[in-house]
Amino acid sequence: MNLSLDQISVKQVRGVSALKEGELHAFGVFTVKDLLEYYPYRYEDYRLRSLSEVKSGDKITIQAKVIGIPVLQRYGGKSRLSCKMMAEEWMFTATWFNRHFLREQLVAGREIILNGKWDQQRMQLTVSDSEFPDQGIKKGGSLQPVYSVGAKITQAWIRKTIGQALTQYREMIPEILPQELLRKYQLLPRKKAISIIHQPEDTQEGQQGRRRMVYEELFLFQLKMQAFRSLSRGRMDGIVHTVENSAIREFVRSLPFELTDAQKKVELEILRDMRASYCMNRLLQGDVGSGKTIIAAIALFATVRSGFQGALMVPTEILSEQHLRSLVRLFEPFGITVGLLTGSVTGRKRKDLLASLQMGLIDVVVGTHALIQDEVFFRNLGLVVTDEQHRFGVNQRSVLRRKGYNPDVLTMTATPIPRTLAITSFGDMDVSTLTERPKGRIPISTYWVKHSMMDRVLGFISREVDQGRQAYLICPLIEESEKLDVQNVIDLHIQMQQAFPSYRVGLLHGRMTPAEKEEVMQAFNRNEVQLLISTTVVEVGVDVPNASLMIIMDADRFGLSQLHQLRGRVGRGQHASYCVLIADPKSEVGQERMKVMTETDDGFEVSRRDLDLRGPGDFFGTKQSGLPDFRLADMVSDFAVLEQARDDVSELLSEASFWTSPSYEPLRHYLQQEQIFQEDLID
Ligand code: ADP
Ligand code: MG
Predict the structure, then answer these.
(1) Exposed (0-12), middle (13-18) or buried (19+): which is 510, by Cβ within 10 Å?
(2) Is 448 in contact with 598 (CB distance < 8 Å)?
C-alpha cells in the first residue's frame, strides 16, 4: 500500500536536514502533509509595475537596466551602494544598504529586477531585494507567499522547502471532498488548491485556492461535530426518564408565576431529550434574568419523579446557597429532598451528606466543584445540570457525568453565544435558547458618566435607598492582583460608610471566607444592608429582586459580557432599575463599549457587538472555550461558508450511503483519525 502524506516524515523533503527537521517540529510540522498545509498568511507582491503608475512611498517591483557606474560609500561597518538605472523612459537611482558585493555585478546594460520603496521626489528606489533575469528569475513578476516564521527558519528557506515539497509530492495530494460538492460550489481540486495557495499566479488565483481550502476546513469541522452528535444520539443506552406529564404540570402550577412562551418551548425540548433513550447533551442559553433556574428546577423535578437523583453544579458558594434556598422552597411541597455540598460543608455534616447521597436519601444535590471529588457517589444519578457553563472546563463536566451511568446533561449559560460561535464551539451540543424575559419587567436604564460626576451618583444612591431600594457598588479591578483589588474595595467601603452614615453598608470580596460572604449576602437579601460594596464576586447569578441600582466604578476595565452580567443583578423585580457606569475611557474601543451598554440591554446584542469589537479569538478569553483553531478560515468573515458547510454536512450524514459508499471513504477515514468511532463517544 502507498503511504499517505501524513505518514511521510518532513525529513523526506529535499533540503530538510535533521537540524531543520527539529526546528520545523516547533512549528507543528512533522509530516509532508503538515508542511503542505503550512499556509502563508499573506503575499508579497513582486509583480512588475510601471513607474508611471506608482506613488511615492509604495513598495514596488520594477524591471530596469543598469546605465550608470555604481558608487560605493563606506561608513563605520556599513555601506551604501548607488547606481543610475533606466526603466522605460525614466531615469532614477537605485540604492542598496550593506550590499557592497553587488558592485561588480552592476554592469552597464544589464537587466535587473528591483524590489523596494519608491521615493518620487528624489527619483530614488531604496532596494530591499534584487535579481538578474540572466541568472533566472525567482520572485520577479510573482506573488511571494509570506509565512509565519521565526527562530532558525527563514522566509526564504520555508518558501524554497515548501516549493520543493510541492515538486516531490504534489501528485500524491488526495482529494477528500465529494465530487458533487466540488461541482456545486465550483471548488478547485485539492491538489491544485494547495499548490496555488503557496504559488499563486495572481491574487485572484490565490483567493480561489483559499476559498476551496476554507470550505474544506469548515466542512471537516462540521463533519466531526455532527457525526459525533449523531453517533452519540444513535447510542441508545442513555437514561429513559418516564415522568408523567401530569406530574410536571402539577409542579409548574405550583410556581408563583406563569412560564413564558420561551420557557415552555425549552421545557418541551428538554423533556423530549430526557424521555428519549439517547443521552441528552443540551446547552440552554438565555440572557441574565430570562429564568433559567426554573427550567433547571423542572428538569431536576423530572429526573426525581422518574426515580433518579439530580445534581446542580454551580461555580460559586454564594450561588450554590442561593440555588439551595430556591430549590428547597420549590421542592419541599413535593417531598423532594435537597442537599448542599460545597467546600464549607465539613466534618459530620459532610459525612452524613455523602452517605445520604450514596444511599439515595437525597434526591437533588446542589454544589460547587466539591461535587466532582472522588469521595462523592450517587445511588442513581439521572441528570446533571451545570450553571454558568463558561466557568467550568469540559473535563470537569464529564467527571460529574461519569458519577452516574450515562446521565442526561444540561448546561446553562448566561453569556449568550452569538450565532457565529454557537455553531462552531457548540456544534456537538443541541442548543435551546430563552429568547424572551418574563413579562412585566421594566427595562434597565443604563447611564455612562465621568468620574467628575461622582457626587451626582451618590445623590442617586440616596434617592433609591430612601425609596426602600438597595444598591450595588462594584469596585474596579486594579490589575491582576487580588490583593490590590481587596485593598481597593476596603477603602471604598470606608468612604461609603462615611458618605452614608445612616445606611448599613456591606462589604463583599474574594478574600472573605465562604461563611462571611454568605452572611453578607443574607443580610443584603433581607435588606439589612442597603448598599453593598463588592468586587465582581456578585457577578454570577445573584438574585436580590429589591436591588434597583448597579453602579460600576472604572467600568472601562471590565469586559462587555462582564458588565452585562453585573447589570443583570438589578431589574429582577417590579421596580424601575438603573445601571450607572463610571468611566473615563481613553481608547476608542473603551468608549465604544460604554456606548454599547447604554444602547442595549439585550445580552445577545451585547455579545454580538462584543464579538465585533474584539474578534472571536478574544471573545471567550481562554483556550478552554473549545473554539476551534482554524488554519485559514475566519469565523466571522467566513460565516456564510460555515453555514453552508453545516447544511451540506447534515444532508450528507442523513444519507445512509455515507457510511458505505466508496466515494465517501476519505471522509470516513478522516472521522476515524479524529477518533469519532471510539467507544467513549460522549465525552
Ligand atoms: P437567570 O438564571 O436566567 O438569570 P433566574 O432564573 O434567576 O434568571 O430568574 C430571574 C428572576 O425571574 C427570578 O427571580 C425568577 O423567580 C423570576 N422568573 C423566572 N421565570 C419567570 C416567569 N415566567 N415569570 C415571572 N418571573 C419569572
Ligand atoms: Mg441563573
Answers:
(1) middle
(2) yes
pLDDT for res 615: 58
**pLDDT the model gives residue 2:** 63
Backbone angles phi, psi at 63, to 5 degrees: -100, 135
405: left (phi over 0), alpha (psi -120 to 50) or beta: beta
pLDDT given for residue 209 in this prediction:
93
Q: Residue 223, SS3?
A: helix
Indicate whether 114 and 159 sit together in one domain. Answer: no
Judge if the beta carbon of residue 416 lies within 6 A of ligand 1.
no
Nearest residue (by CA) to ligand 1, atom 12, is 291
Distance (Å) from CA 547 to ligand 1 centroid: 15
Q: Is 597 in the pocket of ligand 1 (CB under 6 A)?
A: no
Instruction: Look up the CATH number of the domain holding residue 501.
Output: 3.40.50.300
CA of 284 to the centre of ligand 2 (A): 11
Does ligand 1 lie within 6 Å of residue 415's CB atom? no
Q: Which residues of the chain have pLDDT under 50?
A: 1, 617-626, 678-683
Domain around 78: 47-141
First to last CA, the chain: 34
Q: State whether 502 and 516 are in the same domain.
A: yes
For residues 52 and 137, membership in a common domain is answered with yes
Q: Return d(Cα 632, Cα 614) in angstroms, integer.
A: 19
